[in-house]
Amino acid sequence: MLTVVVGGRSLLGSLSNNLLGAVKTTHEVIPRLHYNSIFSQQQRTFIQMRTNLKVVDNSGAKRVMCIQALKGRRGARLGDTIIASVKEAQPRGKVKKGEVVYGVVVRAAMQRGRCDGSEIKFDDNAVVIVNKQGEPIGTRVFGPVPHELRKKKHLKILTLAEHIA
């Protein structure tokens, strides 16, 4: 019987010995797994429906929620276009709260392999708001932007970016 112990207490509780009836000893060898090693590693997945993303341009939106990823069944990755709803916006911006907008994913927490064998991942999920033609609405892009956007034909976003990673 393997019992996971978190903080010195069994997850099965005191009923584990009564229900199973097989364990009669008072000293068991139980592998101790630390709470940090089990629960702190959040699974990094695709950007999918209801994912909140930070907006990193000066279009007026601060935070958007993904409605649909336009490419792929599983979700969006770096450089993919999504449809999103604006959840927070600045008072006098070009984009208002509640609007449905298009966005290009410029930072994703999910790892992405590069051609040279290295991998890139970011701390947050971020998006740049674009129009239907794929041109950015804002005039500045804040923070690092990966050079993989060049392959996805988002050159205008790369020219507006402060730092290319």
Automatic annotation (TrEMBL):
Belongs to the universal ribosomal protein uL14 family. Keywords: Ribonucleoprotein, Ribosomal protein, RNA-binding, rRNA-binding. HAMAP family: Ribosomal_uL14. The gene is LOC103710523. One of its GO terms (biological process) is translation. One of its GO terms (cellular component) is mitochondrial large ribosomal subunit. The keyword RNA-binding applies. The keyword Membrane does not apply. This is 50S ribosomal protein L14, chloroplastic. GO terms for molecular function: large ribosomal subunit rRNA binding; structural constituent of ribosome. It comes from the Eukaryota. It comes from Phoenix dactylifera.
